[in-house]
Structures are given as C-alpha cells and as structure tokens.
Amino acid sequence: MLVLSRKVGESVIIRNDIKVTVLEISGNQIKLGFEAPSNVSIYREEVYERVVKENKLASKIRRDSLKNFAKEFKK
Amino acid sequence: MEYLEKFQIKFFDDEMKIKNSQFGEVEFDENIIIPFPEGIIGFEDLKRFIIIHDEDCEPFRWLISVDEPEVGFAILEPSLVVQDYYVRAGFDPEVYALFVIVTLSHEISKISVNLKAPVVIDKVKNLGRQVILENADFEVSYFLFG
C-alpha cells in the first residue's frame, strides 16, 4: 500500500487523470473530492462489497424457482 | 420496450451458440451481444452479455454471460417495482434501458431485487454496465413479497 500524508486542500493524482482532494477534516471523518473521467467508477468500499456479495448470490440461477415465482408476481 | 424487440429477430449468418445447464443450448444472433467494458460488479472479467426472453418466466428476463454461460442473472424492468424508478435514478428512458438483478430463493418471501445497483444499458451506444446509485432509499435487497 502506498501511504501519503495530505493536509486539507492538498491532492493526489492517480495515473494522470484521477484527482483526489482532501476537502475537509472533522473529528475522525474526512471529506474527499474526486475528479475522474466519467467511465471511472468510484464507490464506498462497504457498498461495493455488499453489491459483489449480492451479485454472487444472484448468479446462482434456478430457472424452476423463477418460473414458479413469475406466476405469483403476475397476480 | 422496442429496443428489446430486436433481440427476437433471427439472422442466419452471424449465429452463435452457448450452452447453459438451466436452458440447454441457446442460439442467438451475434449482434444482440451487449459489451460490458467493465463487466458486472464482482464479475469484472465478463465483458459480453446477452438478454434473453423466457416466456415461462415473464416479466423476468435473463442476462447471461457469453464468455461464461453458467453465469447469468434473472433481471426485471424496475418500473414494475418502483413506478418512477427512471426519474429517481436519474436516467433518461429514451437513452437507457435499466434492469435490476433478482436474487432468487426457494422461499418467495426471500426473493429480492437490487434497486441500489441497476444494470444500465446505453441503447444508443449499445454498452452495458452496473452502477451503484447514490439514492439512500434504494436497497440492495428489496423484497418483492414483503
């Protein structure tokens, strides 16, 4: 892991097109600003991991389960 | 959903086939493949998907990986769950087709859809990706039969 220290107002540049700026520090919370091309996704880690977990569960498809459920859903 | 109607047209020179244990052999035209340059969250290496209709499962459809055909997701048009989903999620329905991924279960009360991270298909560019919305009121597990 690369470790850098920054003060409020200072930034880091990732590759040559992603900029992360420290906007505010309050207690143990830090506000970060991100500037990146629109095709770069940036997520809070715990939300990302939650979606990974849900997608993995969802990828276990059972067509027969869904067939039965579809009937119920249409009602 | 005129965009999806095109998936039902069959041409005979660009046909492809994939095999899936739930469906057997699936034949489709190459031009229905939707590229997902960043894959799907948790499956970033899967860059090509198709959406297939399954009459027995309507209104649910299947999003299946062309490269890893055993990887597939049951998907649903989100307006069927949340009427103003497109507006609240901030996507123009003229440009984008949204789908939410269904997490199945043997128990109907445990079947949920992921409203927080829809699959977004750019109809104009024919590109797909999954995004995580900022909306606080959309859940990752929204139970359809609460």
UniProtKB/TrEMBL annotation, chain A:
Gene Ontology annotations of biological process type: bacterial-type flagellum organization; mRNA catabolic process; negative regulation of translational initiation; regulation of bacterial-type flagellum assembly; regulation of carbohydrate metabolic process
Assigned keywords, A-Z: Bacterial flagellum biogenesis, Cytoplasm, Repressor, RNA-binding, Translation regulation
Molecular function via GO: mRNA 5'-UTR binding
Cellular component per GO, a single term: cytosol
Keyword Repressor set for record: yes
Residues passing through the membrane, by range: none
Subcellular location: Cytoplasm
Principal location listed in the UniProt entry: cytoplasm
Purpose: A translational regulator that binds mRNA to regulate translation initiation and/or mRNA stability. Usually binds in the 5'-UTR at or near the Shine-Dalgarno sequence preventing ribosome-binding, thus repressing translation. Its main target seems to be the major flagellin gene, while its function is anatagonized by FliW.
Similarity comment: Belongs to the CsrA/RsmA family.
Subunit: Homodimer; the beta-strands of each monomer intercalate to form a hydrophobic core, while the alpha-helices form wings that extend away from the core.
Protein name (database record): Translational regulator CsrA
Organism: Candidatus Kryptonium thompsonii
